[in-house]
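Provenance and format

Records in this collection were gathered into a single text stream. Each protein contributes a sequence line and a token line. The two records reproduced below are adjacent in the stream.
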Amino acid sequence: MDSQKTQARHYRTLQEMYKTKKPNNCAVIQLLDLEFQSRRAFIDSDVIKEQEKPTKIFEAYPCFKEIDHVMDELRRILQPANQSFVTELRQRWKTFCSKVQFYGVMKKVHQEATNDFRRY
């Protein structure tokens, strides 16, 4: 376990990286992994009012304005040991969307066929 001092250093490094135009994505991911425990403590704490949390989180962690970092944080929360979680989730979402689209088209075809049958 990292000490609070080390976690604070990781956080400061992350903040410095986001002052540049293009932060190194791999380095950001590594720092987010290292700093996870203190970040969760910050987010879960009662120090911030509930209605202010989103604003304060984005101020403290501008990287979460990028969807890839949000998805990776989801992995850290749900399946920290599964490095391919986001890839698997995206594939499952793609499969789900194609099935929903297929269902929508089939339902429309069925409705049109039913309407045509009723006209005769």
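Adjacent record:
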Amino acid sequence: MGNEIIIGDRLRQARLDKNISIDELQQKTKIQKRYLEAIESGNFAALPGAYYVRTFIRQYAEAVGEKGDVLVDIYDGKDGIDSESRRAQPETVQGSRKALHEEKSRNKTTREHLPVVLLGFIAFMIVGVIAYAAWQDRNSDPVISRTTSSLQVENSVSTEQNQDQSSEQDSAESTETTSSSEEDQMEVSMEDSTQSQATIQVTNAEDPLELEVTGKNDRAWVGVSVNGNYTLQETLQPGQTENTTIPEGTENFVVTLGASANVDVTVNDQEVDFDDPNYELLRKDLNFEVTYQD
């Protein structure tokens, strides 16, 4: 039917969530262990027939708290797995926080340079007036002549003062740019951790957040939930990568990992380190708390 592996993974994950071994499940359902293992691996062809497939799915689901009728409908093709597990990616709203920040920076730069331009224009006018007065003096017969060397010294002092002011302004702008760049750096850190969950703190984030999950070692189920709704549900194969965009302005979301040792997670191309040496990497909820740049 095409959905056998997903049905098997969902049942297996439900069993692991309830800490039920395959032998305990055999005692509860009275289904032979080899058939239970075949269901979990998606090998429905190993079961006696279609009737037993449906019956075993319902019995397995009832034992682990899943909806057996829904899974049977998915197996029969009456209910598509895509309609249940996937949602449309959120659209990026035009005029994002980053664009507004860049526009404000451009306006601020223009305002900062305006006084410099005005000062330069005034200085040019003053130099022009002095040059004109000097030319008039040279063409007249003054009682006391003004030497050329004194004009050169005054012009030299004025030029040095302007250069010093320009250097100080450039230095201040460079310091402000470096400070702003350091403040805007996004940081991702794990604040606390237990066997089943961890809190991931993201600071100085830029909208929108791009979340990427990559499978490794073996299969692993991944779910991304925002306000109780899944934006991504996928069973990853080793080497498979899936992406999802977190809705703009979201401050909290949850990434559920069915087998966390088999998944790498990045946010805006920055790796999320959720490995805790005190606990084995099994099923784990990563609770993200996000603060954005002003």
